[in-house]
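Q: Convert this sequence to structure tokens.
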Amino acid sequence: MWIIKRKSDKDKVPKRAALLQTLAEDLKALMQANKELIFNERDLQVRVATWLRDSGHYDDVDMEYAVPKEELSARGVKIGSQSFPWDNDLSIDVVVEKDRAFATIELKYATRPVDEKINRFGEPMKTDALIVKDQAAGDIVMYNYWKDVRRVETLTRCYPAVKGGVALLITNSPAYWREPQPNVGYRAFSTYEGRTLRPALLEWNKNFSASVRKSHPDFEIGGDYSCRWGDTAITARSRSKEKTPFRYLLLQITE
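A:
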């Protein structure tokens, strides 16, 4: 746990109201400042937590912030319902606190192999072995991204001190920001550029894999969201013919 000295009580009201906006701006600043290749989601988590700690904008920054499912149930969450169908504890990637107000950050990092030359222990690699690997199951990552959004919505409703949160997705795969065909099985969970999502039940196409639909149940979203992708400053490009850059989607969640 990292703690930064608190400011006086007279500043609490405006700073509590601005917490979520400050958090979003800090994360966007990180996307523009970091040019180095991020290797995996854990690497991203540590970079985000360190950046937020060093900003001086927060009293506390935690990683892997656990909330037992029993606690959620005790606070009125109907575990197993379409509102919250997952029967497991929550582990939030990063939580920030300012003047006894909290905001949560959920992270997703979905990659294709990159053309970056990578050194290990000061020497270039002699092989083409992948360090940044291909995550082919984009439909599942998209599902989990909206699941993160729903988790933040739920925590915001359960805890008065939680003022909302953000869901950050970084990827160098254009499948995430390009609109899929109307009949694809995962369309309800897509994150394509310009998508506007209203409160709704997100459902797989009924013709989609039965095993996926069973292990990843449909669920409700309670807020209004608009997908707007931005470019990161990461210099690495994918190995694909397009040489795709890393881009990011950042949604603010207040429901």
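The first helix runs from residue 12 to 17.
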